[in-house]
Amino acid sequence: MELVVDAAIVGAGVAGLSTALFLGRADRSAIVFDGGTTRIESVEEVREYLGFDGLPPQELLSRARAEVHRYGVEIKRQRVTSVTPRADGLFEVHHGHSVTMARTVVLATGLIDKLPPLSGVSKAWGRDLRVCPCFDGYEVRGKRFVVFGVPKRLVHMASWVWMWSRDVTVVSEHAFTDAELDRLRLLDIDVIADEVTGLVHSGERLEALSTRGGKSIACGAAWIAADMVAASDLAASLCDVDDMGLARIDSGGRTSRAGVFAVGNAADPAAHLAHASAAGTNVGPHVVMYLLEREIERRTTNQ
Questions:
Q1: How far apart are CA 148 and CA 16, in angstroms?
Q2: How many CA atoms lie within 13 A of 213 on its CB side?
Q3: What is the domain extent for residue 200?
Q4: What angle do CA 9, 27, 257 make, to 5 degrees?
Q5: Domains in the chain: how many in total?
Q6: Which Pfam families does this one have (predicted)?
Q7: Residues 216, 131: one domain?
């Protein structure tokens, strides 16, 4: 008789571990598959997460893993390569050279920011190159901001970061509409019609942005309006997804496929850490109820 776990949780960030904590305390058998570095680990400190503000993300995740372990949840340091639904309602979860059978699958695979292949980007990412002022705008408030990136998101990003600094410059060759330019002018946001070609550092810190036109634009912090995509194609292989490859879910985290759930940034690109944690707590009861209803169906059939 093959061993079947109640839940295979794919992803070991805050959303996945929060789900695991709930299921462990619900006395359900669960395995968390940790495929590697999470998005939060790219920053130096956790921000705007009550009770954990200023904590290194590795410490946050270490604490979370320890809490999950206390309730019998196993964490495997392996990447899930595919999930195959079976006719009997179970799921084959493929990882490494092994397969785990699961009654449910919870996708906590997150998303990634699509960064341009510019010199200096990787060095600045998570430190002086930022994407979310709600998360770490406070730490650079009042400094000179330079905004660049995907044209369709530039005006929104520039307007948003203006709340943390009155010295904001947009660098882009994009042909802004009159309405967009009016919005930027009202906030005294400068526009430089040029293209960013690299990030210039002085030691370990960002000093300026270089442009194709030969300019060196000094800045205290750079903000990139980046596209985001699903960090894994598992959702696309299992259920309905949006144009970013993120799972479409209902209020209980259910996807279009029975038995498959999604939490955190695997379904919501705007979810912050607190949202991700709450998503795990929210989806947990729905996973348990799904398991209960399946067991009742099985017993009814076998009467």
A1: 32
A2: 9
A3: 116-225
A4: 40
A5: 2
A6: Pyr_redox_2 (PF07992)
A7: yes
d(CA 241, CA 233): 10
Greatest pairwise CA separation for the chain in angstroms: 79
Q: What is the pLDDT of residues 257-288, one digit of tens each?
A: 999 999 999 999 999 999 999 999 999 999 99
Given a contact cutoff of 8 angstroms between Cβ atoms, the answer to whether 148 and 172 are in contact is yes
Per-residue pLDDT at 82: 98
Nearest CA to 86 out of 109, 105, 112 is that of 105
Pick from 209, 225, 241: which residue ends a domain?
Answer: 225
**266 shares a domain with 234:** yes
C-beta of residue 247 within 8 angstroms of C-beta of residue 149: no
- Where among 202, 225, 248 does a domain terminate? 225
Question: For position 1, what pLDDT does the model report?
Answer: 53
User: How many Cα neighbours within 13 Å face the side chain of 125?
Assistant: 17
**Token pair of 113 as six digits:** 């920011």
DSSP strand pairing (74-76 vs 129-130): unpaired
Find residue 224's DSSP bridge partners.
148
Regarding whether 236 and 108 lie in a shared domain, the answer is yes
pTM reported for the whole predicted model: 0.95
Calculate Rg over the CA atoms of the chain.
Answer: 22
Assign residue 158 a region (left: φ > 0; alpha: ψ between -120 and 50; beta: otherwise). alpha
Q: Mind listing the pLDDT tens digit for each residue in 133-188?
A: 999 999 999 999 999 999 999 999 999 999 999 999 999 999 999 999 999 999 99
- 89 and 153: one domain? no
Same-domain pairing of 107 and 33: yes
Each residue's pLDDT tens digit, 86-116: 999 999 999 999 999 999 999 999 999 999 9
Provide the token pair at 60.
């946050």
Length of the chain: 303
